[in-house]
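the two lines:
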Amino acid sequence: MRFVIIGNGAAGNAAAETIRKYDENAEIIMFSSEAFPEYSACALPDYISGWIPRSHLFLKDYDDYKHKQIKIEWGQSVTEIDTVNKQVITEKGMTKYDKLIIASGSRAFIPPINGVNLSGNFVIKSVSDVDRIIEHEPSQVVVVGSGNIGVEAAEALEIRGCKVTLIELLGRVMPKAFDAKASALLYKILTNNNIRVLTDEKVLEVKGLKQVEELVTNRRNIPCDTVIWTVGVRQNVELAQKSGISIGKLGGIKVNSRMETSQQDIYACGDCIESIDLLTGQPALSLLWPNAKRQAQVAALNCLGKPTEYEGSVNIIVEEIYDTLCVSIGFTEEMLSGRDFQVIENGNERFYYRIVISNGLIVGWQSIGISNGIGTILALIKTRTPIAEVKRVWQNSDLVAKVPWYLTAGNFLFHEFSSI
Amino acid sequence: MNKRLIIHAEKCNGCGICELVCALSHSKQWHPSLSCIKITADEERHLYFPTVCAQCIEPLCSTACLMNVIQKDVETGLTVRDELSCIGCRACETTCPFSGCTYDYIDGKVVNCNLCQGDPVCVKYCPNGALEFASIEGAAAFKRHDSARYRLIEIFPEG
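prediction for all of em together
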């Protein structure tokens, strides 16, 4: 049985490893558009900051593929999927497949405004992006977009010694992860560390003769030599779409709970797909490393004839910013506006949390400065354990002795937050 | 190795000696926050429960890991980390339902219980008999542990 995998990222590799784990003899062929062995894109900011050396980014070396008997074609983009003859086509030729797994990922987006083609504009998606940034010797940097990558990039560059301005279009930092209070605490952490944070501000253009010299917003001009665009990604679905594979309403490749696409024997996983939100059962985009790995595992198991259902994705953001752990899980209050919800919140400047509740279930968590007990809250969210049930156990000393992790969760939910 | 830590929570009085000797043993620090075993406490009700890595068969931490450094050891069946490759992102710590791993803020890495290479110090020093290191086959306490854990990870039936 020949398994062909398009992509060499988190999903592509998780799929290959799962197949190899269960089938020693399966023929596995991967197509990688880049020439790097597998690396962690999540660790790129840690390299920018100098916390880790470049070599640490790589999760495999070239030999590892050989040792696992994975044949990998480097620097080859698949240009067409011939679903009739079951083969993929690259500039080098055709490769037949029995099962195909599309793990083509996503690419960073730069808005089409004036000046983005000047030297000094960068994204952070690939090792080659970061190599270019470092070669450029950034000094006065503007980071556009305060999602998790933007905030990490801002911190990394500040630690590297740059003067950093972080610009956010919406009204607060990390608006999709944090409601106002948590976001305000994060804002303080960033500004206390000499990052200038501008919210409610829109970038209009980048100016310069041959390279970046200035960034213009709707409020001011910012002299700079580097612009890092962290405003979002676009999913790599063009190949699938061209091949007649259905694309979902949100723009990702549509898959069922077994990661099957609309084409027989073709699966998809990772950033390129539209998944189902675990809590709502609705289509969702949740482009995160752990989701990619789990989806790939499910796709691979189904390819191997072991029927497995994907439980759905949950948004989990974990950021360590200037030694403070900032976590967001599930839904923010803002995402639930218009529906019935409650919020339990507690803490102070150093330790703050809020729990978002809907229909008696925990649907969201945000915290700044807390590390213990979040996993239990996540588990309660995923298993849809009613708060009433948590309370029933928590209140009863004999019961809670049997499920002691409910004690920490109960303390967050029902207890005055007295000591850390 | 088919022996695991079995926790008899009803015997725990929260003295915290297990935390101290664990931290001392692997971090050389007399500091409970560096311990792999943690006491969850409710001081008002005098409830104390040790929690430690459950050595899950399909560990959630492994999927969450942003550097893919967490695997199951084929021989011992334990959840092991390649500590040199860990970058301390703490995604695993945030994901574990059982507070099973600990952020070592000195080394900037996350660690979990490795049963001290077969001779756990916490078991040796617990004065109350709340910790036992025993074979999991047939152990009723372990079966209770397992079914308790399933409440938190029931959507991963292999776990």
